[in-house]
Amino acid sequence: MRTDPTDTGGLFVGRRPGTAPVHYREAPQRAGGLRGHADKQIANALLAAIVALCLLCWGPIPIACLWLGSRAQYYSGNVEFGIVVTFGSAAALLFGNLSLMQRLDRAWVLVRRAAGHDQRRGVLPRVFAVTAVVCWAVFTVWFLVILGPNDPNL
What are the structural domain ranges in the chain? Predict the structure, then answer.
């Protein structure tokens, strides 16, 4: 009896249609020469794009959304409208960015497999975690060392 949640799609009674685990036929063969080099370069470019988009989530996108909300509040004279614009733009931009990163991650897996690597999982969760830790460390250094806790502007 197969009751492992990874085999049954999380249910112990049976599998929902279309939720079977992905089974690859065999390990990919190494691409040689120019094609292998091109696949490596494309995979590296996709990884760099994922990292860049991930870094946008931790600073530029939230700041841009706050700026948009402040402009909306300034022009309308309504604080609630500014808050709605801020949260709406943040949700749209962050979820749109995440959707784009997921697509790039799937493409990265395919390109890595085309290059001959036995790549089964994407890199997005690891990149997201590393960029979160790095941005947290940079912010902590900025806040405690560069800005200083005794800044009169706080």
Answer: 32-128
